[in-house]
Amino acid sequence: MPGRETVLARVRAALADAPGLVSVPRGYRSRGEAGEAEVESRFVACLRGYGATVVVSDDPARGAGEALRAQGAARVVVASDLPSALRPSDVELVEDDGLGAAELDVLDGALTTCAAACADTGTIALDGGPGQGRRAITLVPDLHVCIVRAEQIVETVPELVARLEPGAREGRPIVLVSGPSATSDIGLERVEGVHGPRRLVVVVATRAAPTLSRTGRGAAW
């Protein structure tokens, strides 16, 4: 008997007495119970624990500009539909029109919005919606500055998944970011920047920050 058939025969034999489909308990916590202030505080603490820099501001454009300057970033890539009210005035913004990896690599960073965020895991999620752009612009440059509205932060992972479901059903790619890119080498030494930016700055726009409409340049945010 060929090797493949031998392996499959053994798998079938091992599964012969296995029970059929079983129901999976769904009793896990699906909705948060914490208040807005606690959710935002937990999100910020979790991100800082991962090594991200967090800026809380009622003026997200100013906060992003200060964060970029603090990181030494003078030229950053943005999506073409990033609302004008979120664009820092004293940083050169390069709109992404399909930039190649080499072109992105020489830029100082990327400035984006996000789709949602989760306090329990300190995760920001991007789905290619308004102001977020392609996955490449947040993966190639060494710095990612992301603006998160306070009301976009949910407490639990199930709530985050629910926020992302409409975009996922439209076929949008989902990017989940929990702190700067990091992995371990063969000696279990932490190595940053292998699969994405080494530096992550999250600008949390407080609930006092203005919400933009669909009028003017850029999409709603």
What does this structure look like?
The chain is an alpha/beta fold and 221 residues long. Helices cover 28% and strands 22% of the residues. The strands form three sheets. A six-stranded parallel beta sheet has the order 1-12-7-4-2-3, with helices on both faces. It contains six helices and twelve strands.
Compact description:
The chain has 221 residues and is of the alpha/beta class. It has six helices and twelve strands.
List keywords for this structure.
single chain, 221 residues, six-stranded parallel beta sheet, 6 helices, 28% helix
Q: How is the topology of this model organized?
A:
Blueprint: H1 3-15, H2 36-49, E1 53-57, H3 60-70, E2 75-78, E3 92-95, H4 101-105, E4 109-112, E5 116-118, E6 123-126, H5 135-139, E7 143-149, E8 153-154, H6 157-169, E9 175-177, E10 182-184, E11 190-192, E12 199-205
Parallel strand pairs: 1-12, 2-3, 2-4, 4-7, 5-8, 7-12
Antiparallel strand pairs: 5-6, 6-9, 10-11
Count the strands?
12
Low-confidence stretches: 214-218
Overall structural class, as computed from helix and strand content, comes to alpha/beta
Estimate percent helicity.
25-40%
Strand order of the largest sheet: 1-12-7-4-2-3
CA gyration radius, whole angstroms: 21 Å
Straight-line N-to-C gap: 62 Å
Largest sheet features: 6 strands, parallel
* Strand content range: 15-25%
How many DSSP H or I helices?
6
What is the approximate shape? Answer: globular
The arrangement of helices and strands along the chain is HHEHEEHEEEHEEHEEEE
Quick check: average pLDDT? 91
